[in-house]
Amino acid sequence: MSKRIGYANWITTSRALVLGRHSPYAAGTLCLLIALEIILPADNWQQKHETGPRMDSALSVMEKEIKRKGFVHWTDETGIHFKDRLRESTNRTDLGWVSVGWIREFVGILEGTKPLKHAGQNLDQPPPQDITYVSSKDVSNRASRMDPPEQLTLPFV
Question: Residue 23 class from Cβ within 10 Å (0-12 exposed, 13-18 middle, 19+ buried)?
């Protein structure tokens, strides 16, 4: 949808994620799309984000992988490529409202060096979307190194 209409925002992303019309949880997906240069940063997470310079190449790579096996995993060639691009994005200064720390934390989760955790919502600067809900009690009961999530579940629409 973002490619067709030429932009993404938290409402279109919420709909694509089937989170309802106005979910603040869409902000995490917007963070990743900005870091991957699939959409451009805006001044605020609730504003319109124009399509980015890497949208077509990212969609092309993912489309081939999805057609071949039905999904994209963070541990396959395509997923590793996207992790590398996320890691590279932490060197950029043009991420807009997106915190470089959020991207670093997400890469750490994917690499298994940071535990999954549930962060509180601050609508002025929402945290990246958790991959799954894990209470702080669950996190403290687990080892500090966790298996990274395998499947790329971003809605590239």
Answer: middle
